[in-house]
Amino acid sequence: MVFGWPASSVGQPVRDYLLTLCVTAAVTYLLTGPVRKFAIAVGAMPAIRARDVHREPTPRLGGIAMFGGLCAGLIVADHLFNLKGVFELSNEPRALLSGAALIWLIGVLDDKFEIDALIKLGGQMIAAAVMVIQGLTILWLPIPGVGTVALTQWQGTLLTVALVVITINAVNFVDGL
């Protein structure tokens, strides 16, 4: 038995996903305090803007903790029996990591130096394009009531880039309030 489950259990892949999720969340949480102290030390605490909800300057650079959690989760997944094949048979984890690294770099620079919105958008699109070039593309789209729709490479590329950029900006919007 491993973590309370029989080693040959049908639910083992789910257990591996849950373990990876828990490690990712735990490492992100544990890095938040040290990253906060680092942000204060380097002065990554912009002045309060009119649209901000908080009343005092808030340390930035939280993306460092998120990226650290992602890296930890990928390292754990690479050592789990049911997920190891993904790293051996696919370039997608490396594509995700390299795109995330570019997004992380843009985020750190923005948190410290307040980069222009168009430059950030361009960087986000480049990061998404790097993921697509390395093989991380949505090629199947499940639509409720219709079924699964196959996308062309061009459609998949546009959808992937759009979803990556929209997700980044949704997180940034919520984080920036």
How is this fold's topology laid out?
Blueprint: H1 12-41, H2 62-78, H3 81-89, H4 92-113, H5 117-133, E1 140-143, E2 147-150, H6 153-176
Antiparallel strand pairs: 1-2
Structural account:
Its cofactor is Mg(2+). One of its GO terms (cellular component) is plasma membrane. The chain crosses the membrane at residues 17-40, 61-81, 93-109, 121-142, 154-174. It is a multi-pass membrane protein. One of its GO terms (molecular function) is metal ion binding. This protein is mainly alpha-helical and 177 residues long. It folds into two domains: 1-89, no CATH class; 116-177, no CATH class. It has six helices and two strands. The chain has helices at residues 12-41, 62-78, 81-89, 92-113, 117-133, 153-176; strands at 140-143, 147-150. It has a two-stranded antiparallel sheet. Strand 1 (140-143) and strand 2 form a beta hairpin. Helix 5 (117-133) crosses helix 6. The chain starts with 11 loop residues before the first helix and ends with a helix.
